[in-house]
Amino acid sequence: MLSPYRLDGGINKRVRCIEVDEEVEGGRWEGLNPEVLAVIFVRLPAEERLRTVALVCRSWLETVAGPYCWTEIDIEQWCRRCNRLEIIDLAVRKLVRRSKGTFRRLAAYKLGDGAFSFLANWYPPSISVDLSNLRCPTLIVYLLPKNSEKQLNGKSLKVLQIPMSEVTDKMVQKHAESLANISVLDISYCLKITSKGLESFGKQCKSLTQLKRNMPPPEWEKPAPGSASSRVDDTEAMIIADTMTGLHQLELCFGRFGDRGLHALLTHCEKLSHLDIQGCWNLELEGDLEEKCKQLAVYRSPWLDYDEDAVLSDSSDESSSDSIS
Hints:
13 helices, LRR_dom_sf, F-box-like_dom_sf, F-box_dom, Leucine-rich repeat, LRR (right-handed beta-alpha superhelix), F-box domain-containing protein
């Protein structure tokens, strides 16, 4: 059955909403408040809301078409299946518009510069104010803050999860100020965001408590000392330590930093309780660094999975040899 809406925000014009005439004991579904319906609908995947929920009755269709269902926009799984940047950007734009600027969370994969700029700066159309009954209409000028319309943009956003996106440093530097209230940020595998973009996030987003900045592994085996993949680069670690001091949780898998960068993170991020540095092969954990890491509530060491895989491989080999003998 076709849905009246597509995930990219388009409408299948051939589909009509199903009218429900039967009386339902205890009341009619279409009589429920849209906000109550939205509390239920947001537990469903975004694609399910658009393809199935919107077909049930007119009130459900109107609820899905309104802002209540889109305070949290999570389309990451759909994006992975779609895997087309232009379609993903279009879908994000449509859903941000539908939220009317109330969206608090966005989770998408392979986001582009255009959609990033849009979510940071879009705000609902201006609301007209009737001044005819005011004794002093000019007073409204002093009651409204400067650039009040611009305050309705991406500053409502609290959680931004855009792994493996195509967003560039230039866009981050230009629009990070509009995302000042973000507390959770996932820019893992965003190869076009470098230390410059990371610094912009750190300087503008002072509410950050969680950061994921995992990167692709340079190679699957432990790099040889002195090889290109083992060269230490503390730049990003130092930026995080200097600009994101309120972090509670930090993931930096396959980072290029060394002991100096880790020491800065542990020193400046005093609230840090979760640290994942798997694959950070440049670390030597000299002095008391390892002891400080182990004092955290959750700590995943650079070699944790590597060592576990080796143990599992050895044990499986032993068991297979025993079974043969």
